[in-house]
Amino acid sequence: MRITAIRDVVAPIKSDIANAWIDFSTMTVSVVAVVTDLVVDGRPVVGLGFNSNGRYAPQGLLRERFIPRLLAAAPEDIQGEDGLIDPHRAWAAMMKNEKPGGHGERSVAVGVLDMALWDALAKAKGVPLWRLLADRYRGGDADARAWVYAAGGYYYPGKGLDALKDEMRSYLDRGYSTVKMKVGLVPLEEDIARIEAVLSVLGGDGSRLCVDVNGRFTLEEAIRFGRAVAPYGLRWYEEPVDPLDCLAHAALATTYDGSLATGENLFSHQDARNLIRHGGLRPDRDILQFDPALSYGLVEYLRTLEVLRSHGWSPRRCVPHGGHQFALNIAVGLGLGGNESYPDVFAPFGGFADAVPVEDSRVAMPDVPGIGFEAKNALYAVMRPLERE
Ligand SMILES: [Mg+2]
Fold it and tell me: Where exactly is the site Increases basicity of active site His (predicted)?
């Protein structure tokens, strides 16, 4: 199995929404196709991938470094003993001549290609990626379904409390029982009114609501906000402070008894290790949201899970950011705690297979080879042109 071509394109996922840090008016993603000479069922195997939302398309990095390195690698150097592409060996080829540390956004470029390589490998074997992962790393055990929650509640020009409630109601109507909303962009009293509006839709049950600050608060603001929302018993309090400030997390964790969640902006197993070592997080309640598509892909995510295990953390504490099918395969195949979902934003990259509805906040995986992009029409329409010259 040899790589014969790698194609990439930049696609927009812009929208008018905003969180406490950024708006998404110019957001883009890279989409790649890794074309191989292996033919299965009369079709050449093509691995497809894209980067998750929140980081821009890394086209320069892809074209200048990572695609050329993958194409320059000797086929036998990136194959396993079965003659198929080995994502671990391909990862090493891509990262040749890259110094440690300072991960920047090269982790996004590598993540895009890593996703496509796993898609190609699973297609070469004729199995869904979740099945491949369960067989290889979990003795064949795959979860029947993954827990997912509806991430939304963005700030949007002119959006009042009624619109926020309507949005949350529509998630419940679509089978979600837990929802997430953005906080931290407006004064505390306004956010409390927004939270209480959403809680009124959830029957007052705070365990069905997550709030996300996107790293906006200072430690003092985070403590103040935590004290204000503690009585609601929220499902979790996400990215309260800067994602790289371990000491601030540790300090906050001494004053906030509920679940904290963070990790979507940590892009390597070393960053994850620092968080676990120094961030004061608690393996019995806190949630880790590393996004494999942004953080060097699944090869690196497996290292991150190993770091967690060695520090006494279960994979069930992981609920990746990103709302994409790649992380959903990983959640089901490797037994994570679930996955984010964006029912209304980041289309067509967010969301899961078309024919698989969310029921009771859980979603099953389709039984199609690879990651399953072909079972999601709107997304496959963007990817398909890359399959052919
Ligand atoms: Mg978040």
Answer: 291
